[in-house]
Amino acid sequence: MDNTTVSLTELAATELAHAIAASSGRSAHTIWGGHGKQLRQTLIALKAGSGLAEHSSPGEATLQVLKGRITLRWETGSQAGSAGDFIPIPEVVHAVDALEDSVILLTVIKPH
């Protein structure tokens, strides 16, 4: 990856359009990181009513809600989030539900 500036506003609009058109109701684009990096940041767009099924995180993770409203849920609780909210993700199996068309920025630090 290079040091090119990424407009999250433009990318969010593009990915949300892809999510709305997709049968899965979601679209994602990795902004930073990948197989050779510990830090990975991925912009995820979710159509209202769609989400991310239960899954585990490969390391410490956070969500920043850029647009819309979501619910992060896990077995013993949940956390609502709306545009501008920053949410630490518990290190347990969890899921994300989009209450309206939403865009989130997922940040994960993979363990060594």
TrEMBL record:
Gene3D superfamilies: Jelly Rolls
Family annotation (InterPro entries): RmlC-like_jellyroll, RmlC_Cupin_sf
CDD domains found in the cross-reference section: cupin_HP0902-like (cd02230)
Name of protein: Quercetin dioxygenase-like cupin family protein
Organism: Rhodoglobus vestalii
